[in-house]
Structures are given as C-alpha cells and as structure tokens.
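Please predict the structure of the following assembly.
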Amino acid sequence: MSASQAAAPAHGAATARPVLASAGPGFVEFAEVEKSYDGRTFAVTRMNLSVARGEFLTLLGPSGSGKTTTLNMLAGFERPTHGTITLEGQPVDRLPPYQRNIGMVFQNYALFPHMTVEENVGFPLSVRQVSKADIAARVGRVLDMVRLKQFGDRRPAQLSGGQQQRVALARALVFQPSLVLMDEPLGALDKKLREHMQLEIKQIHTMLGVTIVYVTHDQSEALTMSDRVAVFNQGGIAQLGSPDDLYNTPQSSFVASFIGENNTLEGVVDRVSGEQCRVQLNGGGEIAALAVGVTQGSPCHVAVRPERLNLSAAADGGNALAATVDGRIYLGDHLRLLARLANDQVLTVKLGPEATMANGETVTVSCAPNDCRAFPADAGTGGAIPKQGKTT
Amino acid sequence: MSALQPSELDRPTLARDRSAADADLKSVSAALRRAEFGDRMRSLLLATPLLVLLALSFGIPILLLLSRAVYDPTIADALPKTTVALAGWSGQGLPGDDAFAALAADLKDNQAKGTAYELAKSLNARLPGARSQVLKTVRKLESADGQAALEAMKSVPFWSAPSTWPTIRSGTNSLTSFYLLSALDLRWNAAGGIERVPPEQAIFIQVFLRTFFVAASVTLATLILGFPLAYLIANAPKGLAAILIVAVLLPFWTSILVRTAAWTVLLQKFGLANDFLLFIGVISDRLDLMYSRIGLIIAMTHIQLPFTLLPIYSVMRTIPPSQMKAAYSLGARPFTAFRRIYIPQVFPGVMAGCMLTFILCLGYYITPALIGGASDQLISNFIANYVNVELNWEMAAALSFILLVFTLALFGIFARVLGLDRLKLV
C-alpha cells in the first residue's frame, strides 16, 4: 500500500486492511546482515529477516541480544558491517536516516522539550516544507487520533508518561511513513497503562495498515500485539513465528523458557523413534517427549508448560511421575502447586483454584508426551545460534 | 422540658460542631504556619554568620565607597566661613569682599590645622590647576591679616577667574553630582546645564566603550572556541571526556597572575608565539603582540574559556543522543536538526556562559595592566589608578558606580530576555 493510504487517520476504518499481506518479496528484507562494533564480536550475526507489508513484527529478546542494533540498522543510525537491508525493494545501506521516511518511537520518547505538543508533532512536516495550513490540519487529525487534541499547546514536561508516549506516536505517524519502528516504547509506563497502550497501538496499526517493527524484552507484550515475533538470542534470530507457534512449538530450549513459563527437566535421550523420543531423567525416572532436534545418547532438556501438567491418572502412553506436594500458591483464578520429584526437582503445576492437595501429600504428576518437548542440552542454556566468527 | 424537638436540639449541636471543626482547621493551619515559621527561622539562623560576614565585609564597604561618589564633605568641612559668606551670592560674576575675606580666613585656619594640602587636592580634582594656586595663596597669607589678606587674595588672578567661585560654591555643598558626571565625560556649565566636556578632556566614555568592546570580543572568542569543545566533551566516551575536562580546568587552578605572566612570555617580541609564526612562515616580521589589543584579547580569551565552556557543557550533557536521532528519523537534515533541536536546547547554557564571561571581563584589571598597552587599559585600571595613585576615591567610586549600573542593567536585560530560571550556570 502506498504512503498516502497509510496516512490519513481521518479516514479511519476506511483504510483498514487485512494484516499480513500476501507473499512475495518482503517489504523489508535483511539479507545476511552482520554488525560488529569492534571487529571481533558480533552484535548481530548473519541475519536474514523478511517483514511483510502491513505486518506487526516484534523483535523480542533479552538485553544485548541484538534486537535494538537490528532496529537501529533499519532506522539508519547504524550501518551493517556485512549484508544488505532493502526497503520496498531498494537497498537503503547508503541512505541516511533522514531520507528513509521511517517513523520511529523511542524508548524515552525523545520529545523536544522546547516545543509544544503541536510543534513536536508538526516537526516532521515542517522539515518537509509542508505549508502551515496543511501542517495544522494534519497535526490536528493525528492528535485527534491519539486523543490529545486539547493538549496541543502544552509542553511535553506538562504531560503524563502515557500522554508523552501518545505524542511520540503521533509524531512518528503524522508524516505518513509506510514503516514505523518502536524501540521499547512502553518500557517507562506502569503495568496498567502499558496494557492499555498496547491495545491502542494495536488499534492504530489495524486502522492505518502501517508496517510496524517493534522491539521489546517483554514477552507478554510481544504475544499481545504481534502478527509475528522474532525471538532474538545472542545476535541472531532463535525463532521466528506467530505468537501461537512460539508458545506451543518452540524450537529450542531458549525459546521455550523465554516465552511463557516452562518446567525444564534434564536428562539423556534414550532412543528416538519417529517424532517421539524417550528420555532418561537425571536422578531417575523416564519420560516420553517430542524430539526437537535431539539425537540418541545426547543430553537434553525437556520442557513442559505448567498448564499441561495435571494430577489425574495418566492416559495411555502418558507420562506419570511420582511427586510430593511442596507448596501451594493461591492466585485467585488458579492455583500453583509445587511438586517435588524423586530427584528433588520441583515442578510447577497449574491447577484450578478448587484443587485441595495439602502439603506433603503424595501425588502423581502426569502429562501427554506431545506436551513435552525435548531439546538438545547444549543449545538449551547457551542459545539457539552459537556465535560465529568473521571467517565464515 | 421534655418537649424539645429533636430538630431544635440538633441545630445548635450541628452549628457547634461546625464551628468546632472550623476552629480545629484554623488551629491546624496556625500550627502549620508556626512550624513552618520555625523551620524558616532555623534555616535563616544557619545562614546568619554568612549574611553578617557579607554585610560587614562586602555590603557596607561597597555602600560606603560608592557613597563617596555623591557625598564629598572635604571642601565644606575645610571652608566653613566661606560656606556662610557664599550663602547670599547670586552666582554671577565675583562674590563680595566678605567672601574673599572668609576664604582667606579659612585658608589660614587650614594651614594652621595642616589640612591645606588636602583642600588643595580636593579643589584640584574639580578645578585642574587649583592645587598650586591654593598652596601659593596659603604661603602669601602666612604674614597677612585683615585688609592685607584680602589684598593678597586679590593679587592672585586665580581667585578672580570666572570658574573658580562657582566651583568653590558647588564644593561647599557636600552632596555633589560632579564625580558621576565626570565619569560620563559630562559637567555643569556656567548656565547651570549639563554639557559634554571638551574632547581633549573626555576619556571615560571611550574607556567604557573600549571595556565593552574587549569584553564582547573575548566573549565571542570563547564562545567560538568553547562551543565545539564543549560538544566534543559532552559526546566523548567517559574516559576521554574526563581527560578533556581536566585539560580545560587545569589552567583554572593556577592563579590568574601566573597565567597572565605566562602570556607575557609567550607574546613578547622574541617570544614563542612570534618564533612559531615566523617558523611556519605566516609572518615575515615579528608582530607586536605584547602591549596590544590583540594580545590582550588572546590572553583574556584563554583565561575566560572555562567560564564560557562549563555552563554550555553542563547543558549539553543533559541532552540525550536520542533527541538528534529522533530529529533525523523525522526527516531533519543534520544542519536543520542542529539548528532547530540542538541549539534551542543548549541556548540557556550558551547565554549563561557568555554572560558570565562578559561580566567578568568588564572587571578585568591584572591582565590589561600587564599585557595591554597604554591604550588598552580598561575601566578597572582607571579605577585602580584613582584609588592607588591619584588618591581620588570620589572619582574611583563614581566610575565603579557607573560600571556597576551598566553591569546590573546588562544582567537585567539577559535575565529579562531569557528568564532567570532558565539560566543554567552550573
């Protein structure tokens, strides 16, 4: 879609369009992109990434995983040491940030303190030589969209954090960029406001059909907002997929533990048969699990979600582990039971609030093999993509 | 009396409650005021030693000195009889013989008390050449009394000159505008109006202008040199920034006299600066850098650089790098971003630094005295000269007063234009 379509917030739902446009060459393409600051270690290693037009893609990862570097390279603040980034089919490596026409929302908003809200939002238009009357009209429309119309003549310091955030958003959208980058834009807000703003940003995305690349380290934020999430670890993408994919079919121990909550059991693969494998747990016990890249005889990590564990009798072929109740955590809508296995490992089991097991009671923890995922142990703690040298 | 209605019972009770609540509120706010008053008094008490010291060593002496610019009782004290005799004089032509006689008697009294020289000096300040005439007359009067004294007075042409008696009469008035007017190259004319002094006597306006010019040049030079350096330091990695800051501050820690002396070594005709310029071939003849305006400005710029730089630096440090990034991402070219985003935000620091340097330069004394030539002396050098050499404290006070007024006016304009709360001195 063209920039003019992406714009015009006044048209509102008229421009609503299906998220995740059709296949074909990506709107944004990273090809073999590498970034190193000192020539020896890599902030980003050999990254390939394609963002579709109109997509909401989140780069999720712990700090230092390369997600912000990736965003900065896309914005033009950093240059890749290797590889190419293309935007709408055009390589942008030699394009300075001010010629890329990309809207950006910064972590601390980066509002200009000496300008009013209107002047802040009008800034990208005034540097584009838009006429005064036009600026006023477009600033009015976009401030209306973020519901800040009556604050136009205030200065940023006179606004609350959430309002400042909306000003930053309005400023990044007002010049109708087809791509908007957001670098942990909600990091400074409290939980309630953050959740509210997540929905608001999502709404604006749907309304304008603009492509958004969003950086966060908060996995629930990523799951709430994104069409797709790229999980970053140690300078590379550990897994790229829909929130559903990432939660239900993580491809590595890192993703399994980073997205949502997981119980991790350590063991050795006894044998692999088709999709499944049997794992001999360290300290005794045996469990059937889905084999995700494990080989026979190798150490592995088995991940299973707390809500996939239960205390009812195991179905045919199901896993059953003897345990004693070590503690109960009452959370209103559900109950968390800490179950200590024979090998002293403690599993978290998510149960309905009506569960009555008392401390010290002996229980059998069971789960279906398809809910257990066995990952190679080496990639588990260290990360999915080992660091590569420049020689590759 | 059991027939009382509940409502009748209630009403007074409610009223009482309300007034009690009001009273409570009042007593609470009164207690709060008392507590705050106590706090204020305590903090004031802590500051008292400083305030007393400032008043005794700073405020009162300055006021006393400045008052000498408009209050000079020397002549009135020395010539009591003349003061009385001149009371009825119209001010036109010469006064009557009684005034001459009274002046003769006053002069003899002064000679007897040993204050004749002081009187002569004081008159001389207002009437150039008066000193020798007074002393000559005093000698003539030594052996003369009565009519002889009157004749002795008349025999000295000075006492019959047209400007003498008006000056004496204005001198017998302890409150005088003479020094303040002189500091602005103005004087009272015979007709009672204010006029400019003849060009050959006018010096101070030129000196004030020179002082402002030098201060402005130094301010501009420190800004041109200091701004990029402040930017470099503010954006350098931590370690490098610390080294650069020390390099800027290092000269700050040596005495101004030492730094000025160092500049005399560098700037003199056969000094390092000339040697170097000759060596790289920029000049073919040695320049007169010492005792010149340019040498003065170079040395003062060096001394003032940290004063301009530090406020700018401290403001630059508070501007996060994301500000410029945001401007770029919104489509601003580097120059536009710098002009519209960076400059407005560092402006308070720039103004603070420039104001600091400008005002300090207005009071420079040692550096112009050692490095400047005769035509590069600033107003402070003249003030010092009046205090130390001419012993004309009235003139010194008048010049100081004018300088102070100019400085405060400038500060007022700065503060008005910028707003004092936006000034970021540190």
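Residues 1-10 of chain B have pLDDT under 50 and may be disordered. Chain B has 19 helices and two strands.
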